[in-house]
Amino acid sequence: MISGWTIVVDRGDLAGTEVLRDEPPSASDLSDCEVLLRVSRVGLTANNVTYGVIGDAIGYWGFFPAGGPGRGVIPLWGFADVVESTVDALPVGTRVYGYLPMASHLVVRARLTSSGFVDTADHRAELPAVYNSYLVTSSDPAYDASLEDLQVLYRPLFFTSFLLADQLADNDFHGARTVVISSASSKTAFGTAHRLRSRGVRLVGLTSPRNVEFTTGLGLYDAVLPYGAPVDVEPSVYLDFSGSPDVRSALHDRLGADLVEDISIGLTHQATSQDPRTSSFFAPDRLRKRTADWGAQGLAERFGEAWHAFTAQAGEWVAIAHHTGPEGLVEVWQAVLSGGADPGTADVITF
Ligand SMILES: NC(=O)c1ccc[n+]([C@@H]2O[C@H](COP(=O)([O-])OP(=O)(O)OC[C@H]3O[C@@H](n4cnc5c(N)ncnc54)[C@H](OP(=O)(O)O)[C@@H]3O)[C@@H](O)[C@H]2O)c1
Predict the structure, then answer these.
(1) Which of 36, 91, 165, 235 has the smallest count of CB within 10 Å of its CB?
(2) Measured in angstroms, how far is the CA atom of residue 157 from the centroid of ligand 1?
(3) CA–CA separation, 195 vs 310, rounded Å?
(4) How many angstroms is it from 195 CA to the middle of ligand 1?
């Protein structure tokens, strides 16, 4: 018998994990339009921790309900294979990319699209649509089997970088010519820097003292400063990936009216305080706008071009550490959650 497993975390203390062993669904458990996926390869970064930190506010706990009251399943991005199917167009062996649970298996109710399918399960209906879409690799022009590791790590993050950089340029950087970026060592931040490099703005990265060398070595920022070091006083936009109230306050104190826009994107420091001086960037909102402006095809073409330019270099910046099984996944989760991870290494887990 194939064994199944699900990793549940304590919503109040994300370091509290338990591996639940269970028997996965079989063909006879599937209703019409349902497909059983076997999770195969996933990435795990600080972004997945954010799903837990703001799980209640944004609804991230709702995607893969399991574990009972007070517990939940953290979503991951990755590849899975169809192992049982009631849908002719999604036969056994189909490989898909999308939003997956920390679990060995997932049942989806598939509505076919031109690029794959949408999971129409009732409990996902109210959640942001971008997370419910799955790409079938054989019909994804951007898919390259040799780049699966880069895809599970970077694609959701770089999509945010792409949309954020686009929004800034669309707003002419709010009149500023300097962009200050916190948690500059994070993948979403340096992906944004990669997109902004040729746009005529000066890029200043802020990072932890121990990550200055790595961040400087990326060669993407014009200057890299440790947290606490003074930035030049000039009209600036702040892109906040850290969520640190201290870093934000120090910038406001130093720049005053020269801080023309303060945009919150992430919270790697795991603080959830709201600050009225900040506007929030939520990638699914920008995605809706650009899908309306450019059409799905126009967006895919623009993103594909940016993605190819990024992946051509990304493999040189960060080494990939491979892990296996639910135990490997729990180890990586604890390391990423505690912030002890080296930004020069990224984690991929296979099952
Ligand atoms: N709004 C959106 O739509 C959207 C989309 C994608 C990502 N994001 C957010 O962007 C942020 C970056 O995500 P990522 O996956 O790119 O991160 P990542 O590559 O895993 O970032 C690692 C970096 O984050 C900082 N960090 C990580 N854990 C920490 C901890 N426990 N304490 C203090 N600092 C810690 C450190 O950077 P420093 O030393 O440089 O601070 C570390 O080098 C996340 O908060 C994510 O949720 C938002």
Answers:
(1) 91
(2) 10
(3) 8
(4) 18
Assess whether the region 4-140+318-350 and the region 158-284 belong to the same CATH fold. no
DSSP 3-state of 11: coil
Pocket flag, ligand 1, residue 45 (CB < 6 Å): yes
Q: In the CATH hierarchy, which top-level class contains the domain 4-140+318-350?
A: alpha beta
C-alpha 44 – ligand 1 centre gap (Å): 11
Asked if residue 160 has its Cβ within 6 Å of ligand 1, the reply is yes
Give the ligand 1 atom nearest the CA of 267: 45
**Closest residue (by CA) to atom 30 of ligand 1?**
339
What residue segments make up the domains of the chain, in order of their start? 4-140+318-350, 158-284
Query: Does the CB atom of residue 211 touch ligand 1 within 6 A?
Result: yes
pLDDT in tens, the chain (351 residues): 558 999 999 999 999 999 999 899 999 999 999 999 999 999 999 999 999 999 988 899 999 998 889 999 999 999 999 999 999 999 999 999 999 999 999 999 999 998 999 999 999 999 888 899 999 999 887 899 999 999 999 999 999 999 999 999 999 999 999 999 999 999 999 999 999 999 999 999 999 999 999 999 999 999 999 999 999 999 999 999 999 999 999 999 999 999 999 999 999 999 877 889 999 998 988 999 999 999 988 998 999 999 999 999 998 999 999 999 999 999 999 999 999 889 999 999 999
> What would the CATH number be for the domain defined by 158-284?
3.40.50.720
| Paired tokens of 301 | 């073409």
Q: At what angle do helices 46-53 and 325-338 cross, to 10 degrees?
A: 80
Closest CA to 105 of 33, 32, 3: 3
Is 244 touching ligand 1 by the criterion CB < 6 Å?
no
